[in-house]
Amino acid sequence: MEKFELLQPKGLREAVLALAEGDADRSTMVLAGGQDLLTEMKEHLAEPSLVVDISGLPQLAGIGEVKDGSIRLGANATIAQIAGHPRLRADLPILTEAADSIASPQIRSVATLGGNLNQRPRCWYYRNEEAFCLKKGGSVCYAAEGMNKYNAILGGGPSYIVHPSDMAPALIALDARVQLVGPDGDREVALADYYTLPSDGPMTSETVRANGEIVVDVIVPPQPQGLRSTYLKFKERESYDWALASVALAVVMDGGVVRHARMSLGGVAPKPWTVDVQGVLAGRPVNDETVAKVADLALDGAKALAHNGYKIPLTRGLIARAFQQLS
Amino acid sequence: MSSDPKSADPATISFTVQESSWTPRKEMTVLDRDIPRIDGPDKVTGRARYSHDMRLPNMVYARLVLAKTPRATVDEIDIAAAQQIEGVVHVGIQKNAGDELAYLGDDSVVAYVAAETPEAAKDAARAVRFMLSPKAPVVTREQSLDPEAPQITRRGNVRAGRGPRGADETEALLEKSAHQVRATYTLPIQHHVCLETHGCVVDFDAAAGEATVYASTQMVSGNAGMFAGLLGLDASKVRIVCQHMGGGFGSKFGPDLQGAIACTIAKATGRPVHLMLDRPQEFQMAGNRSGTHAEVALGCDADGKLTAAAGTIDKLGGVGNGSFPGFPYIYECPSAAQTRSVHTALDSNRAMRAPGHPQASFVMESAVDELAYAVGIGPLEMRMRNAPDDVWKRHLRVVAKEIGWAEHPHKTAPGTPGADGWTEGIGFGLATWRAGGSGGGRCDITIERDGSVISSCGVQDLGTGSRTYVAAIPAEELGLTIEDVTARIGDSALPPGVGSGGSVTTGSIAPVIKQAAHNARVEFEKRLSEITEVAPGGYVWENGSIRTEDGSFDVPFRDACSLLGNKAITASAGFDESNHLTAGGRLHGAQAARVRVDTVTGRVVVVDMVAIQDTGLPLNRLAVRSQINGGMIQALSYGLLEERIVDPELGLLLTDNLESYKIAGSREIGAIRSIIDDEDDRWSVTGMAEATSIPGHSAIANAIFNACGARLRSVPFTPDRVLDALAERA
Question: To the nearest whole angstrom, how far is the Cα of A238 from the nearest Cα of chain B?
Fold first, then answer.
């Protein structure tokens, strides 16, 4: 990797100011667990001149309940801490199932929530230094016409990456919000709105996070009574892999009909693909017909590339499975 | 077997040595048991030192610079910036401006660097600037067969192998067949994925005119001559050391280009050179198992008896040649199959565990399986009717029983998924290999006056357990325990071993160790006879003691050794082609797989795999089962996941790391059961591991069909392919 300066700030403010000093070409970067940034640096996909190590900042640590009954997940909470949290496991299995599905025990023990939400794409053209693709400032998405088995069926174009985060769809199904601190102050963004599509704007980022901003924590608001949730991730290699497709689903049933439903899909689009299923489900029972409607809605506009057509039936199947599991 | 009088030291063997034979099973105390590998603790604690781990005083770290374009002309190469990097010791150019890059592989090496630290070497490698004019990649079969395609090798793009003979007659037989299958089966290029990448550490002392090379190699003894040539030395001046190595699977026989470059740097710098490939380089230039594209036809009569085989089988091994997959395979019938190499601009295939066989197995076992369901007799009965000998039939019966075939509900038609979308199936496949060994190996046994026993042979241990039997065989012969014997291996200064290829190591080396230990024992008895007046042959060695049969002498082994006077026992033996210690003939084997298929997602879960393997005398039952397990796991990984993917337009190797080149992990492995065929009555030794890696993926494909009716004609059976095959069926 290229030489860089490492800053270990004493406080959040120092970190934010240091990051904000970076140029527009993002030559300052945030380091937490390092599971994505260090690999990007070793492969020369990221070459920051200043690395701001936020792993020691106390404001970013921990998992806990806040006054209004919300749950606060610190950006530096590790994936293993989330997976092993008894309260989450009991009340919000969608989060612990998502955490359990990520990478390997070794990676989960150091990878952080903030890093998971902000990680860069895994597309093998993007990850190959030799391919100067759209995501790296080039002019071509090689996956569009190339070996695109793992790429997007929804929301693609001009880039066809899929967002690799598992925590993001799970948190979106719980209406979670991210809290950011930046040089211009604090702000809160619904996680569903945190991610962008390639057609929305700058290709070199997947989120609305501005230069100098740091994700401090994620707030999961109080959930409706009787909520049941699951994260169903399908990997090509069960031992250790990214999602070919995943379904994050949270529902509340009331007397045989759906009162509340939230769904977000992973592995199929350049951002967590959030589907407003409340309309087709509210007041209706979960049966083959309504689940098919949900799948139709979720896959509305799905477009297969040369090698990823299988993702359409796969995603339909996973959606049905997720509903079976919860109803 | 008798010792070779010309090569044995006349001072130590001064009498005719009788050929020994393996101790009968009932009398064995060390062999034919589970023996934990003696270097296990070293490996799990990190004490074992691999070539990668060598750190010599004053050593430089070398690194190759690879282009990523299969075919190109080098327009410009500039090493000035690399030379300026702090800590850089040497930069060399491998491809000058105007040179051609002919294929993605070792021909991609454009330059190399050496530096004081690995980091400086990496920086310097990146600082080498080169400009290429890329040409059409020609990395797929279709690109190579295009009439407009550029010529990939001097021999052209297609080289014929065997056949076709009697195509018309065979076609007539096929036409007359009650059933026939005509299908295309494909297998991708697979990689060896050695945990330890290829490379070596060269310690060249120019002043002394000698060198020691720490090489990750499957052929310690043979490498001395090869490195000698590269260093301009006599083979006698080069010592090869490989105490432990992290996998070879057929890909690590020679120094390769990286070894040659390490020698060049050693000569240029006068310093020890550490040059190991990194993982992407390993995927690009360290060899592979060839891919296959087979368009074949197979016929059978109304009873399922095979009648004729035909077709064209293309081997896709880049610019290389080597073993073709045969058709038919194991099962016999008249054949007019044509094999040919279709060359692409990719690195040459190398031997990889039973070269050609796993590919041949998939094509044949799939076609046989398709016929089995067409005839309506089911996959087991079809194989019983066509297995060429009774051992295979017996093996099939064993694995069928173990996998639960008798109780299986749908034997002649695929199953149907339950309400949850899952369904279960069973499939079969046969294995084969040749038993035996090859010549060239020698072993020395030394028995010291203090009771130390040293068993020495330059053979390498690929992780298979050869070090363990180098100690265990003398222990058995001398009535000792394995802890009483020190094994010395992995060093060309020792008596020569053999190259570990074709599963010949055990059949070549074990008899030599056995004979050397026997010779030592006879020599020992000869010495004792001067004291006891009991002639050699009249002694019993057991439980750590030596006694005469008449009971007049009975002393612990160590005490007996102290009677040796000032002269230790040394004995030696070489390989005799006519020995009776090495098994001959054919190896068989059968495997069965039970899978669960999720028809919703295309997931294939291998819940159970069973193999039976004839092994001759199993020296170490634990090691043999471990080898059978390994063969099944390697085939499972091949069947479910492994595939080299190259972008056909860019020529970019996309699977050059262990994230995108997927190998099976612990959650892909279900029950794995290895059965040693104890009815094999050859009380003689052979290797057999390659046989075990041949049919596993075939059995899995057949089990998938039995489960759900989806015929997977392309390896690997990833969810997308399973879903596609299910859709095709529907």
Answer: 6
Residues A161, A180: Cα–Cα separation, whole Å = 25
Cα separation, A24 vs A211, whole angstroms: 8
Tell me the CATH class for A227-326: alpha beta
Residue B12 confidence (pLDDT): 37
**A4–B contact, CB cutoff 8 A:** no
Query: Inter-chain contact B665–A146, Cβ cutoff 8 Å?
Result: no
Chain centroid to CA A275: how far? 15
**Residue A44 at interface with chain B, using a CB cutoff of 8 Å:** yes
Of A142, A241, A317, the CB nearest to B601: A317
Among residues B598, B591, B599, B676, the alpha carbon closest in space to that of B636 is found at B591
pLDDT at position A1 is 83
**Domain residues of chain A, as ranges?**
227-326
Q: How far apart are CA A219 and CA A216, in angstroms?
A: 10
Q: What is the pLDDT at residue B700? A: 99
- For chain B, the average pLDDT equals 95
Cross-chain residue pair B68–A149, CB shorter than 8 Å:
no
pLDDT of amino acid B600: 97
Q: Which two tokens stand for residue B279?
A: 């993982």
Q: How confident is the model at residue B570 (pLDDT cuts 50, 70, 90)?
A: very high
Question: Are A241 and B662 inside 8 Å of each other by CB?
Answer: yes
Provide the residue ranges of all domains of chain B, joining segments of one domain with +. 5-30+437-454+476-582, 51-66+72-135+198-276, 291-435+583-729
Task: Return the structure tokens found at B467.
Answer: 């070090």
Question: Does A105 score more than 90 pLDDT?
Answer: yes
Per-residue pLDDT at A141 exceeds 50:
yes
In this structure, what token pair is assigned to residue A292? 């098919």
Rounded-to-integer distance, Cα B217 and Cα B32, Å: 28
Q: pLDDT band for position A24 (50/70/90)?
A: low
pLDDT 10s digits, B39-49 = 999 999 999 99
Q: For the domain with range B5-30+437-454+476-582, which CATH number is right: 3.30.365.10, 3.10.129.10, 2.40.160.10, 2.20.25.530?
A: 3.30.365.10
**Distance (Å) from the C-alpha of residue B46 to the closest C-alpha of chain A?**
19
Q: B51-66+72-135+198-276, what's its fold?
A: Aldehyde Oxidoreductase; domain 4 (3.30.365)
**CA pair distance B674, B444, nearest whole angstrom:** 34
Q: 3-class SS at B209?
A: coil
Q: Per CATH, is B291-435+583-729 categorized as 3.30.365.10?
A: yes
Please give the C-alpha separations between residue B496 and each of B30, B297, B489, in angstroms, as whole numbers: 25, 47, 10
Q: What DSSP string describes B20-85?
A: P-PPPGGG-SSSSB----TTHHHHHHT-S--GGG---TT-EEEEEEE---SSEEEEEEE-HHHHHS
pLDDT at B730: 79
Mean pLDDT of all residues in B525-531: 95
Predicted TM-score (pTM) of the model is 0.96
Going by pLDDT thresholds of 50, 70 and 90, the confidence category of residue B634 is very high
- Using the beta-carbon criterion (under 8 Å), do A241 and B666 form an inter-chain contact? no
Q: What length is written for chain A?
A: 327
Strands A5-7 and A50-53 come out as parallel
Q: Averaged over A158-186, what is the pLDDT?
A: 97
Chosen from A310, A323, A324 to mutate, greatest number of chain B CBs within 10 A: A310
Residue type, A181: V
